[in-house]
Amino acid sequence: MRKVRDYDAELKALNDKARTLKAKRVEQLGQLVAATGADALDAETLAGVLLDAIGSKDAGAKEAWRVKGAAFFQRRGRKPVPSEVEGGSGTAAIDGSGAATEPGGDAARGSGGTS
Is the pLDDT reported for residue 100 higher than 50? Predict the structure, then answer.
């Protein structure tokens, strides 16, 4: 005889997993904001920048932002050169815990760009 499935328990487990994944995503986005130095901006300015990025039709600007973001993530894993530690690069890095190791980074300025 077949075992009866408990659909309610399965649904509850799926909802719990979805809630956990959503909370983890929100936490990671917060860490990204802090790591880039964008936490220095007020919430309204940060929201405006993100809304402009989402609404932008300029494919060239989006590609430039993508390249800059990819370079940011590639840099975060390497050890900084002594000139960068002294403030030469202006980029923030993330250690294994996700905390910003250079909280005064200038990366929040973006590409100085378009919208």
Answer: no
